[in-house]
UniProtKB/TrEMBL annotation:
This is Dedicator of cytokinesis protein 1. PANTHER family: DEDICATOR OF CYTOKINESIS, MYOBLAST CITY, ISOFORM B. The keyword Acetylation does not apply. It is found in: Cytoplasm. Residues 191-211, 584-622 are annotated as: Disordered. Keywords: Cytoplasm, SH3 domain. One of its GO terms (biological process) is small GTPase-mediated signal transduction. GO terms for cellular component: cytoplasm; plasma membrane. InterPro entries: C2_DOCK-type_domain (IPR027007), C2_domain_sf (IPR035892), DOCK (IPR026791), DOCK_N (IPR032376), DOCK_N_sub1 (IPR042455), SH3-like_dom_sf (IPR036028), SH3_domain (IPR001452). Transmembrane segments: none annotated.
Amino acid sequence: MGWRPADKIAVALHNFKANGVHQLTVHIGDLLYVQEELDSGEWCRGYIFYEPSKRGIFPASYISIKESTSRNIGSERIVVPAGDELLVEATQGLREWRWKLRELYVRGSRERWRPLYHAMEEVVNWRRTLVSSNTTLEALQETKVKLSATIDEINRLSGCPLTPRDPATGAAVDSQNTSILELWRLHRDRRADSTSDHTPGTLRRQRKAQPHGHLHHLFMRIDSVDHPFTENSEIFFFLSIGGKDQLSERYLITMAKGSYRQPKSIGERKSCVFTDLGSKDIETDIYLVCQIVRNGKMLQDKKYHSQHSFRRPYAVGVLDVRTVLQEQESSETAEHIKTITMPLYLCGTNHESNFATFHLNVIQKTGAKGGQKPGCAIALSLRAFHRKQLSVVRMEIPMLFTKATEMVHKLGFPDVILPGDARNDIYVTLEGGSFSKGTKTAERNVEVAVNVVDKSGTVIPRAIVSGAAATPSHEYISYIFYHNNNPRWKETFKLVIPFEKVPDAHLRIVLRHLAKDESKDKSEKSFAFAYLKVMNDNGSIISDGTHELLVYETGGKKWTDPAAYSSQTPQSRGDDTELRVCHHEREEDIEGRVKPRPGRPQRQGDRYHINPHLLHQAHPEN
């Protein structure tokens, strides 16, 4: 019985501990080069691929043969694993760089260890993206270029020579089949990449402090809420530019009647991450705004009994988080987290009409001091992350994140769109309206109910989300201002309409007047409605701009039939439709704004933020 040549690549499936002088210890996952096989097929002889000095025999049943290919290096022929050459290079590099990383750590060379550690993390993440192959070819190609740039950066940090690469794919070129002049050009361009601030795809360009090329994230954990809630309440958090323009969607937590949210173990505390902030965003006056809405009686100081709960403005809080972002920008302590107390200001009936902008009074210190209740506050922990994907942050500091940590997205496009980041979100901001008294002697208590309806009039279930962490619902209910015919809500919610139902979907906005001692069913108090189609007749998403929606009376059955009102009544001023099956009150309307990209509103109105991802997929030729 003898040995025969094998010349194969294998991977270890089980651990094998050497018991004899000629045996080789292998571990699960080791890549092995099989030089020879025993005729009986029971044993193999070879070495660990990336540690050729370790040679010996090992059981054939402990390994699995992999596809391989041969490559000529000068006069020598070597066998390497088959597959994407860049993946093979990344895998081999990670095995070699780990020894350099360990050496720097033992020597205490922190200034050299840290950049190498982060660069290796990036290689792991780019390699994972390539292995999964669950994205577009264009995105994969971009990932390969970034991976090759990261590998070159590590080689530069390690003092290794740069590898000549194909500039289009990032793959190493075959030096045996490439002319000397072409190799010189590739080396020249690659060396220029390592020092240029403007060459696309290089790691150095990604790591320098560019004003518009990085993503920033703000982690927020709610440690405690020090306030006695006498009614069920909703607490919304969102980021705002200058306290005026909403930057992110809202994050929601709920508080039950009579509850305090006292400090718990870190794993039980509510938390979220405001993602995809741009460098321009964090350089402006950026605030964390809190709005509290109670669900209960119309007036808290009255003892009357009501069968219904009304969403009523209650309190606000606001923090300037720009200082947190700037402090973290210069901090290199990964575990650093800042605890801040946010005072709460009760708006009361005197300030409730300005509830949507009441936090501006707090910022400007005008008219809000009297609403501050001593001892009422929310304790928050804040931590900013810069220039990293969120997946990398989770790996670096896993103790901050739990399964319940919610991602709170920026409204519109981030500065950098990463491969695989596809969002089909439609954000609707209910800004305000103008209504007449009608037959009432006092002004109305207006409540707005929004449904997503298909062409048959059926309400699409679970199509509305009031904020991150909220359960999808079939209806969104606005909060109510007491005796106010010109309410300004500024409430943002998200539409999660199944993609196939978008062409036939529209928003039906029903207006209700509710008495403070409401005893009848709410549907009997609907006095008007408006509607807004999600998609235009030509197949495009509703256009960018202000939409002043017309309000119609709800008398008769026509207002519940989309086939009647959507084809014979205009939804907004300027529509060409002439026939009207519902009566329009000239003094009543709702304004709307559609924004398919990030921007600041120029006037009051319902503001609808449409993510361009949805527009592109629905109408790809545009």
